[in-house]
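Much of what follows relies on a compact textual record of a protein's fold. An example makes this concrete, so a full record is given next.
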Amino acid sequence: MNERDLFLIADISGFTPQIGRLVSMMNYVRYTTLSAVEGLGVDHVFGHELNHRGQIRWLRSRATRRL
């Protein structure tokens, strides 16, 4: 999937129309989440000045890469 397709909510072959659109949206969320945390390490994520939302994004990105 190219980067331009990430911004389109469209049917994906091999899925029903509704599931294909859901997968399309999930691909976008995954891409933006990984882009937001790219290059961050443990020191960046668990520092005192960062918020809880950033910590959850970082942990989620690590979990999805293992799956």
Notes: Helices lie at 17-37, 42-45, 52-66. The chain is about 60% helix and 0% strand.
